[in-house]
Design brief:
By secondary structure, the protein is mostly helical. It has a single domain, classed as Cytochrome Bc1 Complex, Chain D, domain 2, CATH 1.10.760. Helices cover 49% and strands 0% of the residues. The chain has 4 helices and no strands. The protein has helices at 11-28, 48-53, 59-67, 80-92. The chain is globular, with a radius of gyration of 15 Å. The N and C termini lie far apart (34 Å).
Amino acid sequence: MALTLAPLASPTAAQDLSVGRSLATRWCMACHVVEPEQTMATDNAPSFRAIASRPGTTPETLDRYLSRSHTLMPDFMLSLQERNALVAYILSLR
């Protein structure tokens, strides 16, 4: 019996994480802690790691949240690809 192992990270997945991290640092870093090394952000916004660790956080719930206007956040009008990349990055922080 042959055992086939899937690669741990495909080039597309790595690219999504890179794009998601870039979006997070450009658009979200002023309020959220978006990287493990980041030390400063506002007190009112949860870190991306805290968001990723919430029991109800799934790719679907994050996409839904990022797809709507927010009263406490600017409306960035992210494309589907940008939302997918940002969701992948946030979930990678678990």
